[in-house]
Design the sequence.
């Protein structure tokens, strides 16, 4: 994941120079064309006859990107690899369990936590909480007091969320946490990883 390349890109009767980016869930096109193609919408991929053009097949037609043979070969190899699952994106494994604070209601999150969760911070690689609202955030922050585990805050997506991303980020930063990464959890939830900021050095003579 995370590949990017530049070249002449054509799709749907339009063409021009642009950049192609491969993400876990989608292919993004920037430049003359601006597209987001979900990985699930790709029906296949291959090189053209001389190997210099990447062809991505969709129900709406083929996207063609002239990237050069070495880059096309690298893209085909990357596309052949399955995208990482949610457990991998969150850094979860049986030997890297999450200390789960509070209930988990999201089915995708519950599946990712299967066999990789603990009810206490002892032995946990990270902390995680589903935060449907600010009351749940208050409870999570109270539980996290005194710990330095990385923390995944899982909250509802969208403008109508009871805990908007801007509010969550402001509250976490005010509590001494910095955000470092985010990922989609499901069609209704997203996760942001936070870590405690280092304590500021004491002034000399303090």
Sequence:
């Amino acid at each position: 994941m995370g590949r990017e390349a530049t070249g002449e890109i054509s799709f749907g009767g339009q063409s021009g120079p642009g950049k192609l980016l491969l993400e876990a869930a989608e292919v993004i096109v920037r430049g003359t064309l601006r597209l987001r193609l979900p990985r699930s919408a790709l029906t296949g991929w291959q090189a053209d006859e001389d190997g210099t053009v990447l062809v991505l097949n969709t129900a709406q037609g083929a996207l063609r990107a002239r990237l050069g043979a070495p880059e096309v070969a690298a893209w085909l190899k990357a596309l052949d690899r399955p995208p990482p699952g949610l457990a991998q994106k969150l850094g979860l494994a049986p030997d890297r369990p999450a200390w789960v604070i509070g209930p988990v209601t999201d089915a995708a999150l519950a599946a990712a936590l299967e066999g990789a969760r603990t009810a206490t911070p002892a032995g946990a690689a990270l902390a995680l909480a589903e935060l449907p609202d600010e009351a749940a955030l208050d409870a999570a922050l109270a539980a996290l007091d005194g710990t330095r585990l990385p923390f995944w805050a899982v909250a509802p997506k969208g403008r109508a969320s009871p805990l908007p991303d801007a509010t969550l980020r402001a509250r976490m930063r005010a509590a001494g946490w910095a955000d470092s990464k985010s990922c989609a959890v499901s069609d209704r939830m997203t996760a942001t990883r936070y870590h405690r900021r280092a304590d500021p050095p004491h002034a000399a003579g303090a």
